[in-house]
Amino acid sequence: MLDIPPAQLKSLSPSSLGLVAILLTVLCWAVAANVAFDLFTTGIHPLELAGVSATIATFGLAILNSFWGRGQIKPMNLKQFVLGLVLVFLVAADYVAIQQLPVAVAIVLLFTSPILVVLWTAIATRRAPSQFVLFALILSILGVVLVSKILESNLEQVNWFGIGIGLTTAVFFAAYIILSEQLVGTGESIGILLRTYAVASLFWLAYQFTQGLPLDLLTGDRFPKVLLVGIMGNLLPYLLFF
């Protein structure tokens, strides 16, 4: 963990704080993705892990909200409900991509989402991105091609399904970013996240009723790993993002 004195933290610009948050988010997701991949190799289904990890994050946010929440409970609005559904499909697609692809490739594909955000912003504002932004996007695309090793592989051996799912995570992550930007600044980030994850948890609970409870995730040496994925892959990254 970065050891930044409070006085120095206050002196950091918003862009610097954002960069620190992004770096910590990437670190959390990288750790969680590797642990999730280990669970998948033991036969755990990605959607089962997605549901249980979302529930863990919901409980964690409820505890944080009880200590640092604003006290007044506000009703959920439509954007928060939609954000919860987007989170469901984002986490589900992400875990399927991790199962299908090398972890590094899955993470890189997830972080192609800024390309979509830039395109959406350009369309919404009717303003072309700056040359610097376009250059950064080109580098991002080249990075995806190099890390995924598409050019080095026989096209018949490329896991196109996995890459397609990985790109789908970028779409959902871009939608999550855009919706989140419309909700930040209200002074109740923990409360918004709690309601968002509550929607996601209810969705996964309904799904698990049709599939059976994943009790194998809660026994033996698997539960500590599941708990780590719930905290590092769901709770902390999205808390940092807000």
Q: How is the secondary structure organized here?
A:
Layout: H1 6-11, H2 14-41, H3 46-68, H4 78-100, H5 103-110, H6 113-125, H7 131-148, H8 160-183, H9 189-211, H10 222-241
Helix pairs in contact: 2-10, 3-4, 3-9, 3-10, 4-5, 4-8, 4-9, 5-7, 5-8, 6-8
Protein model, in words:
The chain contains ten helices and no strands. It is mainly alpha-helical and 242 residues long. The longest helix has 28 residues, at 14-41. The protein is globular. Mean pLDDT is 79; it is low at 6-12.
Chain-averaged pLDDT: 79
What profile does the largest beta sheet have? none
Net shape: globular
The computed structural class is mainly alpha
- The low-pLDDT segments are 6-12
Count of runs of 4 or more consecutive helical residues: 10
Helices and strands, in order, run as: HHHHHHHHHH
The rounded Rg comes to 19 Å
- Report how far apart the termini are: 19 Å
Using brief descriptors, characterize the structure shown.
242 residues, mainly alpha, 10 helices, 77% helix
Short description:
The chain is mainly alpha-helical and 242 residues long. The chain has ten helices and no strands.
